[in-house]
Amino acid sequence: MKFKLKEDWIHESTFLGKKVIKKMYDNGHTFDPEDGIYKIIDHTGKINEFDETQMKSFDIFEEIREKFDDFEIIIEEIPEDDDILVRNWRIQLDVKTTRKKLKEVQRIIEEHVKPIINT
């Protein structure tokens, strides 16, 4: 799983009475794991290592979910004589998505698929 920053990561410090502001990472910067470990360089140049649970605990990070990571299609073989048989069938599509995108899929199915099925 990837994580991205919700805002700029800025480190502020004072050196000899002067305020020093250093931008560590830009808003939207993504962090990819290497063998399940996220390596993040802090303001001192030290490489800090975090696992997925630790990354989720920080409010500054947002999870990036891969599209269609739980997409599954099951195809069953139907004998040829069933091709013209009219009876109740079930079409099931399991996806992981937002409600807004789900409503868009429903609209497309109702607009394009229902006319084919109802003929």
Quaternary status of these chains? single chain
| Strand coverage percent | 25-35%
Number of helices: 2
Principal-axis shape equals elongated
Low-confidence blocks of residues: none
Q: Percent range for helical residues?
A: 10-25%
What sequence of helices (H) and strands (E) makes up the elements? EEEEEEHEH
Domain tally: 2
What gap, in angstroms, lies between the N and C termini?
44 Å
**Biggest sheet overview:** 3 strands, antiparallel
SS-derived structural category: alpha+beta
Rounded radius of gyration (Å):
25 Å
If strands are numbered along the chain, what order do they take across the biggest sheet? 4-1-7
Q: Please, could you describe this protein's structure?
A:
It is a single chain. With 119 residues, the chain is an alpha+beta fold. It folds into two domains: 2-64, no CATH class; 80-117, no CATH class. It has two helices and seven strands. The protein has a three-stranded antiparallel beta sheet. Strand 5 and strand 6 (47-50) form a beta hairpin. The chain is elongated and about 85 Å long.
Tell me briefly what this model is.
This protein is of the alpha+beta class and 119 residues long. 21% of the residues lie in helices and 28% in strands.
SSE arrangement:
Blueprint: E1 2-5, E2 9-15, E3 18-25, E4 30-31, E5 38-41, E6 47-50, H1 52-57, E7 61-64, H2 99-117
Antiparallel strand pairs: 1-4, 1-7, 2-3, 5-6
Characteristic terms for this protein:
alpha+beta; three-stranded antiparallel sheet; two-stranded antiparallel ribbon
